[in-house]
Structure formats: structure tokens, C-alpha cells
Amino acid sequence: MVTTPVQLTDLIVTVAQEHVDVLNRLTAAVELSAQLDELGDHLIGHFVDEARRAGASWTDIGESIGVTKQAAQKRFVPKESPDLKPSFDRYTDRARRVVVLARHHARFSERIGTEHLLLGLMDESGGLGAKTIAKLEASEGTTRLATLNALDNTSRQRPEQQPFSAHCKKALELSVREALRLGHTFVGTEHILLGLLGEQDGTAAKAMAATGITKAAAEAHITTEFRKAVSAQRRAPREA
Question: Which residue intervals define the domain Clp R in the entry (predicted)?
Fold first, then answer.
């Protein structure tokens, strides 16, 4: 039996310290509960992915979590769909623009893939995601070139409800997981980059691998940049 690292007393104290009014405390408790549910889902998802990489079957995974093989697949295998879960509520403006730009790059395609998301990420050049790619790629512009070379340039009739590919949906799911793992309350372009790198079977990850960009190096650079930003904010003189 795993000892729960989060104690109920700690959560009660946290809510009580941040809010005086009892109804505000109740509202905060509900919001915190939803966050914990999301963390739990991503915790399980992380170890499901780990088990799959280790060669575990969906039957084995289903038995481990107490459901059928079909139920496990339905819950954890992203399907091609125009709908996105989770929603973009916590995405930054830059991150949302990346998705809009991805749709633009996929305007002649039947679906939106990780390659389109990566092109949108690089188009949003002011974001930390694009800056990290520029910092780590073998030479300037090689990642964009590798991604463009990987595109299917056959023009097709775009469906009215253009779906995101399964790989793209998984990358966006991993973006949220990366944000949660790093303790961030938002999803930015840097998290989208980490999500794309985490979905190793996607075209985007393969294009970046060809130009020398690894997930470990990207995370190290992103973490360093966050530390610099926090340090600069602390050093900034306060207004009188």
C-alpha cells in the first residue's frame, strides 16, 4: 500500500490560510478538489504510458487498474477527433495562437497533425517554445525545413469538422501533463514543445530528433529560463 504523500490536514490548512470567509473556503476547496482529480488522472496516465513503453498489453493494464482491456483503451488511447480534451481554458494567449496557426498550416490536409502544431509553434516566435527550438536545433531553420519536408503536400478536401490526429491529441494531453509536472498553473508554448517531444511517434518529434533537439535538453533550457525570469522579478525594484 502506497502512503499518500498529500495529507488532508495539509489541504485544509492551505485553504484556511488563503481564505477567511467560510463560503470562499468552500469554493476554494471545490476548485482544489478538481485540480487533485486532474493530477490523479495524469498520474495514472503517466504510468499507463510507462507500462506500454515497457511492453505491457492493454489486457495487463486493464487488470492492473481494475477495468477491461476495452475500457482501458477507451480511456487512455486518444482517438482522431475535432474535439479536444482537456479544453484550452488554462492555455496562454500564445499557446492558443499556436493551435490557430496549426489549423492554418493544415488547411489543405484531412487532419491536424503534430507537424502542423510544430509549425504553428515556430511561427509564434516570441514564445519560449520557439526560442528553445532556435537555441537547440543544429543550425538555424533546420527544424522548420525538416518539418516541411515531412509534410504530405497532396492537397485534399478539408472536412467540415477537421479532426486532430491521435498523435496531435496525445501531444496536447502531454502538454498539460508537463505543465502540471513542472508545477505551473498555465499551459504555454514551452509545454506544447515538451508535449510534442514526448509523443515520440509523432512526425514533429521525429523532425526535431533529426535536428538534434531532445526532450531532456529542451526541459533543461526551459527550466533555466524560468529560473532567470523569477530571479529577475525578485530583483526588480518595487514601486513606492
Answer: 88-229
